[in-house]
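Lab notebook, bench 4. The sequencing result for the construct came back, and we need a structural model before the next group meeting so we can plan mutations. Quick request posted to the team channel:

Model the 3D structure of this chain.
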Amino acid sequence: MSSIVYGALDVHKKSITACLICTETGEVVSDEVPNERERLLRAVRRWSKHGELRLCYEASGAGFVIKRWLDAEGVSCEVIAPSLIPKAPGDRVKTDKRDAHKLANLYRAGVLHAVRVPDREEETVRALVRLREDITRDMTRSKNRILKYLATLGFYYTEGKNWTQKHRNWLRGLSLEPIQRLIVDTHLEGLDALVSRRQGIDRRIEEIAQSEPYKQKVQRLMSLRGIGLYSAMVLVTEIGDACRFAKAPQLMSYFGLVPREDSSGDSRRTGKITKAGSSRARWILTEAAWNQQSKPGNCERLRKHWQSQPGAVVAIAKKAEKRLHDKYWKVLSRKDRKTAVTAVAREMAGFVWAILTLEVA
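Done. Here's the predicted structure in token form:
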């Protein structure tokens, strides 16, 4: 039986630095190869002469491409969560070779945590949903540019909210010099193009949400107050397989909604939430939490939607509606609104887990 060789890859855009540790002899092998599929696989075949390879690398902008290359070659490879890698406070020297060696040692010791790797289709859908958020952010920037430029000219809209049809008519009716009008119209054309793109993406996301394997999960999550189709798609694509979380608090921690803690001996100190994991899912739950202020049972959309859902799902949704409403006002009685919303968002993650892991016959 061949010996096991633990290895770590320090991946960059143009190069990959590798460190291999042979468990039988203790030999340490370092290598550097270009970040190209054929060159990497050629090196892997060379490394295999030392024993059975078990490789890893940190999750980064490299994505999961390298893991898929190695999986196709039959080589074991895991993608490691960077935020959970132990770091020594006194280690102040950082090089690619040292990083790979340190990661290989930690991987061999079994103290690293692997991330879940989505399949290609799941990763593509998640990228599409994230693209919608990126475009929305670009739209906000375009709107701010227009308003700030007009402010430098002394124009302020005071007849209502910005970006309504009335506001757009006001923009078109401003008395501007030719160059000033060119600047404003150029920004408006860019904004309109972004709006059109987002509408197209919304239609595509809606089509995907109506297909398998997303339809049932999305419809279930829409049973919760404050969760619409897009919000549900964000949660589904960011969570992946909810059953990998044994308990609801694990999902709360995955979204970074649990408080930080620094306890030692008899002292216990908690702080703000960790903000680890997906900021997108955390933002969606926080936005949904603001909807829990109003009394339960007065949402017509939910009442209609519940008619198409299994009784067990509706029971969870009704329980969530009452509990989250009570939670908000209870926390608000002794804390500020932001703290109350964060507490509700954390609790809401538990109901999301309950709905997604529910088995309905």
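The longest strand covers residues 4-11.
Will bring this to the meeting.
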